[in-house]
Amino acid sequence: MDHIGESMNTTAKSEAAIGVTAFKAQCLGLIDDVAQGKTGRVVLLRHNRPIAAVVPLTEDAEERSELWGAMRGTVTVAPEIDLTEPMGEAWDAER
C-alpha cells in the first residue's frame, strides 16, 4: 500500500493510502483516478489507521445498493393471510 504523501504508484489496480486531511485537498483527483482505473482503491487514514476506502463502483453494486425495494420479490404471503388484521395482542400503546 502506497502512502500518497510519500509516493503514489499509478499502475492499474494499485492501492494507495492517504490521511483524511490530505484527502480533503486532493479528493476530486483521487476519485477520478479510481473511476478511471488508474488506482484500484484509496484507503483513508486517521492517525495512521484505516477508516474508509474509495473503491470503484461496479454495475452489480449499483443494482444491489438500491435501498427501497431491494428485497422485492423475495417474500410471498399465503392468500388466506390478511396482514392488516389485528394479531390479538395488547400493545403498550393501546393500554
Low-confidence stretches: 5-12
- Specify the helix fraction band: 10-25%
Report the count of strand segments.
Answer: 4
Percentage of β-strand residues: 15-25%
Q: What is the 3D form? A: elongated
Overview of the molecule:
This protein has about 100 residues and is α/β, with parallel strands linked by helices. Helices cover about 25% and strands about 20% of the residues. The chain has a domain at about 1-50. The chain has 2 helices and 4 strands. A hairpin with a 2-residue loop joins strand 3 (about 40-45) and strand 4 (about 50-55). The relative contact order is 0.13. Mean pLDDT is about 80; it is low at about 5-10.
List the helices and strands and how they pair.
Layout (H helix, E strand, L loop, with lengths): L1 E2 L11 E5 H17 L4 E6 L2 E6 L4 H6 L31
Features of this protein?
4 strands, alpha/beta, four-stranded mixed beta sheet, 95 residues, 24% helix, 20% strand, 2 helices, single chain
Short description:
The protein is α/β, with parallel strands linked by helices. The chain contains two helices and four strands.
